[in-house]
Amino acid sequence: MVWQKRDTPGVDTLSSKKDFPHGLWQKCPKCSEIILISDLEENLLVCPKCGHHHRISAQKRLSLILDKDSFKEWDSDLFSLDPLKFNDGSPYQEKLERAQKKNVHLDAFLMGEGTSEGIPLGIGILDFFWMGGSMGTVVGEKIVLLFEKCRQRRLPVIIVSGSGGARMHEGILSLMQMAKTASAISLFKNERLPYLSIITDPTTGGVAASYALLGHLNIAEPGATIGFAGRRVIESTIHQKLPDDFQTSEFCLSHGMIDMIVPRSDLKRTISRCLKILSL
Ligand SMILES: [Zn+2]
């Protein structure tokens, strides 16, 4: 069965989509402060009043981590073929086309190589704005390709994740990506090459339960939601009230699930410092 296909090479997958809709102001979902969008962008999309880290586009994320003009994209031409002909009221194929049109790139994972503070690396971004950053066959395949290429070129890997989990429209095939990505990481780690996983809000379900928490270092942004099943599902299963900060970065750090919480402004510096230490 064919699950995915390549489009013609040379597709420009970089979106020019802004991080916020047209307008001058943005309301912070955490503290309700009304903030000038220009102020927010200047502050790396972090609320100047409460420190809430707003979700940002894949392009913005690349520009925050990589050195200017250093990004070279890989495998931008992979797209899903809707292997199950899934239809939950509206056909998956139509949803794919809508997402491709809205975001320009052909699936939720953007990857390639670049430099950060002069260090060459492979980088992947799972884009939450592309169907909730869900992991289907194309996302899984591109993650494997990223690790394979970086293994051959002896480059460290950074992956930034923002995802609701596996893509239900591809059923069991999307769940298979959990084992597939974990295997690729295992081969990569055998070569003693560093993998840093950057976890942003939200990183949940099959993504949190596979490659996103398999980094040599798992680094989260403050206040991100990280977990497998949602709070309501767990509470109704165990018949207990969960703590208010359950499944936050801070809760995960205090319970040993992640290694560090790093504010966005320190991320680039932290990545290069960690890579230097892990490469010794
Ligand atoms: Zn705020």
Distance between the termini: 44 Å
Output the helix-strand order: EEEHHEEHEEHEHEHEEHHEH
- Specify the biggest β-sheet: 8 strands, mixed
Low-confidence stretches: 10-17
Structure description:
The protein has 280 residues and is α/β, with parallel strands linked by helices. The chain folds into 2 domains: 21-54, no CATH class; 55-278, Alpha-Beta Complex (2-enoyl-CoA Hydratase, Chain A, domain 1), CATH 3.90.226.10. It has helices at residues 37-42, 58-65, 92-103, 137-153, 171-190, 205-208, 231-238, 249-254, 264-278, and strands at 4-6, 25-27, 34-36, 72-73, 78-80, 109-116, 119-126, 157-163, 195-204, 217-220, 226-227, 260-261. Strands 4, 6, 7, 8, 9, 10, 11 and 12 form an 8-stranded mixed sheet that branches. Helix 4 links the parallel strand 7 and strand 8. Helix 4 packs parallel to helix 5 (171-190). The radius of gyration is 18 Å and the shape is globular. The N and C termini lie far apart (44 Å). It binds zinc ion. Zinc ion binds at residues 28, 30-31, 33, 47, 49-50, 52.
